[in-house]
Amino acid sequence: MAIFDPKQKVIAGYQKSIDDKKNSIKKYYDEIGRMYYGQYKDMNLDVTKDINTRCDAVSTLYDEIDDLNIKILHEKGLKLCPKCRTENALTYAFCFKCGSRFDDPDAVIDEAAISGAPAAAPVTAAVPDPIEMEPAAEEVPAEDVAAEETEAPAEEA
Ligand SMILES: [Zn+2]
Q: For residue 83, which of 57, 100, 139, 144 is within the disulfide window of CB 3.0 to 4.6 Å?
């Protein structure tokens, strides 16, 4: 697929970097395996230090891959919950799954959502529509009506 979106290009760059690092990890694993086998065959050989050096390198690569994955998510407008690793929107102040608080600078406490301002319907407050039966003499919250049109309530008593 052709890449037009500059954001997609950035993500592809990160992804390429991740693939390179994964290849490096594979090479290190190969080397570690060969070294270990060499030591198994020749008891006088001690490659512990060499193996440890490569294990450290692998750990570093894994950390770098984690960072890149976080950057990719960021490009997509997402972030991971540090507690449950669930993907959340970048602006969320709390994990939608486990409720953990985000301390990152992207987290925005949505005051509008908390105070229930009707302007921008919050995604989380998905209120199911009641099944319409007949114009019931139901009390409509005053703010909601004011936002729409000031019409007389249904005449039914
Ligand atoms: Zn969470």
A: 100
Q: How far is the CA of 93 from the centre of ligand 1 (A)?
A: 11
pLDDT, one tens digit per residue, over 92-127 is 999 999 999 998 888 887 655 555 545 444 455 455
pTM of the complete model: 0.62
Residue with tokens 């009641």: 130
My answer on whether 69 and 121 are in the same domain is no
Does 153 fall in a domain? no
Give the Å distance between the CA of 63 and the centre of ligand 1.
Answer: 20
13-23: per-residue pLDDT in tens?
A: 999 999 999 99
Please tell me whether residues 103 and 67 are part of one structural domain. no
Distance 101 CA to ligand 1 centre (A): 8
How distant, in Å, are the alpha carbons of 47, 48, 50, 113, 144 from that of 126?
60, 58, 57, 12, 16
Q: Are residues 96 and 123 in the same domain?
A: yes
How many angstroms is it from 97 CA to the middle of ligand 1?
A: 5
